[in-house]
Specification:
Elements: E1 32-36, E2 43-47, E3 60-62, E4 71-76, E5 82-86, E6 89-93, E7 96-102, H1 110-114, E8 118-122, E9 127-129, E10 134-138, E11 148-149, E12 152-157, H2 184-196, H3 200-213, H4 218-230, H5 234-247, H6 254-268
Antiparallel strand pairs: 1-2, 3-10, 4-9, 4-12, 5-6, 5-11, 7-8, 7-10
Helix pairs in contact: 2-3, 2-4, 3-4, 4-5, 5-6
Length: 270
């Protein structure tokens, strides 16, 4: 995740999403993005729709800030972890959030009004802000429903000792990072490799460990269910599959899993 400007940016990716953090001012021309393949030198231009705007409905709001005070913003894991999925695909561990600045209604100077309204805050890279009355911060994701974990955002007046502020408790669904030798995504990937190699007992062990350490990571239950079924334990496999569907009903493989469960239920019918 990053920002795009007139300065060319190099990317290695199969696909990229472009969006703005707030609607463009009325009457402004649409933004044009130029994508060039450095191997074929093929250039493609397209306009970013005015509707391609991130929603702040699920953002975490930091309010009652003093516009006359300079604040230091910092993001840290504090021994935790956070991850999200995009379009039903696993994404990397979250290290960056976006904060949208809210200026005092009638006190913003011309300089403040011209500054970017957002801050891209990365773990380990503090930033200073002033002249703001509130912040709306959050992860950039297509849906926050399947996000798990937490990070610590500190908004501290400059000059104050950060150690004098206590760390908030971790939510129930955010186990300490020290409990993980591997991330849930890594365990799921390892389990898939073991399944492909027909090492089903080992895949089952990884699935059980994955579910124990990250019970809200849907793919853990998917791996567990597949392992149980391949080892001849359909009841346990069906139970894991149902939990997977509960956590990720819109997953790309969900229709196939539903059909598997329907066939299983029919086989049990008298």
């Amino acid at each position: 995740m990053g920002t795009l400007s007139a300065t060319p940016t190099m990317l290695l990716a199969k696909s990229v999403r472009f969006f703005t953090l707030e609607p463009p001012p009325p009457g402004t021309p649409p933004r044009v993005v130029v994508v060039e393949n450095t191997h074929t030198e093929k250039r493609t231009e397209f306009k970013v729709p005015r509707t391609a705007v991130a929603s702040l409905k699920e953002a975490f709001t930091v309010s009652k800030l003093d516009a006359a005070t300079t604040y230091q913003l910092s993001l840290s894991s504090e021994g935790r972890y956070a991850w999200m999925r995009q379009e039903n695909r696993m994404a990397d561990e979250i290290k960056t959030i976006v904060c949208v600045k809210r200026l005092p209604s009638k006190k913003a100077s011309a300089v403040q009004a011209a500054e970017p309204r957002y801050v891209l805050l990365r773990e380990g890279t503090p930033q200073s802000l002033s002249g703001i009355s509130a912040l709306a911060c959050g992860f950039v994701d297509d849906s926050p429903k399947d996000n798990v974990g937490s990070l610590v955002l500190r908004v501290i007046p400059s000059g104050q000792d950060p150690s004098s502020f206590t760390t908030p408790p971790s939510p129930d669904d955010a186990p300490p990072k020290s409990a993980f030798q591997e991330s849930p995504a890594e365990m799921y990937h390892q389990g898939k490799l073991l399944t492909a190699a027909k090492q089903f007992d080992e895949a089952l062990q990884i699935g059980q460990q994955c579910v124990q350490q990250a019970p809200r990571f849907a793919e853990c239950h998917l791996l567990l269910g597949a392992s149980y079924i391949r080892l001849g334990h359909p009841e346990e496999g069906a139970s894991a599959y149902r939990k997977f569907l509960e956590l990720a009903p819109d997953h790309s493989i969900a229709p196939k899993i539903r059909q598997t469960l329907e066939d299983f239920d029919k086989s049990k019918a008298p």
